[in-house]
Amino acid sequence: MKISDRLRRVSDGILEASIVMATETNKGILIRLGFSPSTIEQASESDMLIAIRAKDEASLVLATAKVDNLLESPAQLTTGDQEKASDIDAALRTMPGTNLVMLSIPGEHVKDISHKLIERGIHQLIFSDHVPVEDELEIKEMAAAKGVLILGPGAGTSIINGKGIGFSNAISTGPVGVVAAAGTGLQEVTSLLDQSGIGVKHGLGVGGNDPKDKIGGIMMLECMKILEKDDDIKVIAIVSKPPSPAVEQKIIDYAVSSGAKKYVLALIGGGSVGGSRKQVSNMIIRVNSLASSVLAVAKVLGDEHLHRALSRTYMQPEALVNLLQKEWGRLQSSQRFIRALYTGGTFTYEAQVILGEIMKDEPICSNAPIQRIKQLQDSFKSQEHSVIDLGEEEFTKGRPHPMIDPTIRKFRILEEAKDPEVGVLLLDFVLGYGANPDPVGAALDEIKQAKETAERNGRYMSIVAHVCGTKNDIQGYDQSIAKLGSAGCIVMPTNALAAVASAVVISRGKIDLTHPYSKYLELPHDWIEA
User: Fold this and answer.
1) CATH code of the domain containing 111
2) Taking the CB of the first residue and of the last residue of the chain, which one, N or C, has fewer CB atoms within 10 A?
3) pLDDT tens, 370-398?
4) Is-contact 521 357, C-beta < 8 A?
5) What gap in Å lies between CA 389 and CA 380, rounded to an integer?
6) Phi/psi of residue 417, each to 5°?
7) pLDDT band for position 332 (cuts 50, 70, 90)
8) Rounded to whole angstroms, how far apart are CA atoms 422 and 145?
9) Coarse DSSP helix, strand, coil percentages of the chain, rounded to the nearest 5 percent
10) Is residue 525 situated within a structural domain?
11) Nearest in space to 494 (alpha carbons), one of 292, 296, 241, 359
12) What CA–CA distance (Å, rounded) separates 290 from 284?
C-alpha cells in the first residue's frame, strides 16, 4: 500500500496506481476500475499485480521508473530504526520489560502465540480477525484465570492511559473509562467526548464476539473490574451492539452489586432489559446510540459538561429541517434511494438501526444486515436503499482496510452517482492514528465527480457526511470538514445525526422526527440523579 500511495503522488498525471496481490477480490476490483480483464485474469494468487493508469505517456514512464526503484529499495518505505525477530521469544528478548503485545497474524495461529504470552503474564491486543470462537473462549478463560487482559480478537481500537493503540484518535486524558465491543463506536464516543472537553483515560476494545453467549462477556467484565479500581475514573461507558440477554444481565448485575462508579450502558438500538431508555438503577442508565451516550456521560459529570456536549453533538429538529430543505428541493422525483458507503462497521450497524426504524415500510439492503434488513444479493452492487460496510471480508481479503485504502469506496462513489434513482450518498470519514493520511482529500475528486455526473444528467446528488475525529488528529478535523463543505457536502456532527439527515432528505422532509430524536439523539428524559 505504501508503494501505491507513493506512486499516486509521483505526478498529477497518475490517475490510479495499485500494487496488490492477485487475490480474486483484488482482481475483481481492478477490473471494475477499468483495467483489462484479459490481462488481470492471467495472474494467479501468488502473483503481484502492478496496475497504473495515467493521463499521458510521460506520467506512465515516470510511475514505472518509480515503482521499479521502490521495489528494488524497500528501505525507502520505512522510517527509524527497526529490529526484526524471527519469533515471539526472540522479540521478547529484545524488550524484556514488555507487558503488552499487539498481535496481527492469521487467526488460526493466534491461540498458540496468545497462550505463550498469557503464561508470561503479558496483556494482549489481538487485532487479528477470523480467530475460531472456540480458540477465543479458551484464550479468554485462561487469561482471566491468570489476571491477563485480552483486547480482541478483532479489536482495532483501544486507549490505555490516554494513548491510542491501533485505529484511535488524539484525545485528552480525563475521568472516563470506556469498555467497547465496537471499534469505530469506541472512536466515535471518545472523539465526541474530547470535542466536548471531556477526557478519557482508558478505552478498552474487547472484540465483537465478547458480549455474545459463546464468550459470555468474559473480558467486558474483566475490563469493568479494572476500571472500577482506578480512582481517576468517575464514569464508565459500555459501548456495544446489543449483547445476548444473559451477558447484558451480567453487566448490569455487576454494576449494581459491585460497582462504585456511575455507568452509561450504550447498546446501539437498545438491549433486552427494560424499555428503550431507562434508568436501570441509581448506578446505571441505558441509551441507544453513540451520540446519546456522550450526552449521558456529560450529564453525570455536570451540567457545564452537558451544555458543551449538546453544542457539539446536537442540532434542533427545526434547524436540521431548515438546513436540508434546499437539498431535497433539488432532487428529481425519480431519485428515491440512499446509498451509504461506510468504512466503519459500527457506523454501518448504527445507520441500519436508525434508518430501519425511520423507513420501516421501505426495503433496506446491506452486505452485513441486522434484523429486518435485507441481505444484499451482491456486495459489489447496491439495490434499493443500501447500507454497505466496506470493511467486510469480501472487500478486505488480501488488501488494506478501507479506513487505510480508499480505492474501493472511490470506485463505489462514482458507480452510485450513475444510478438515476440515487438521491443521497451517506459517507463516514474516520481520522486518527492508523487511518489514511487524508481520508477526505483521498475521496474529494470522486465526490466532486459524483456531483458533476448527476448534474450532467439533469439531477442533483446530495452527499451527507460525518467526520469522526478530534482537533488534534494529524489529518485535521476542522480542515476535513472544510474540504467536504467546499465540495457541497452536508456535514453532520455525529453518525446518528447523519443517518437521520439522509432520511430527511430522501423523504423530502416528510418524516416525523419526534421518535428518532427522543430515542437516538437526545439525553433520556427520565434521567434520575442518584
Assistant:
1) 3.40.50.720
2) C
3) 989 999 999 999 999 999 999 988 888 77
4) no
5) 11
6) -65, -20
7) very high
8) 53
9) 40, 20, 40
10) no
11) 292
12) 16
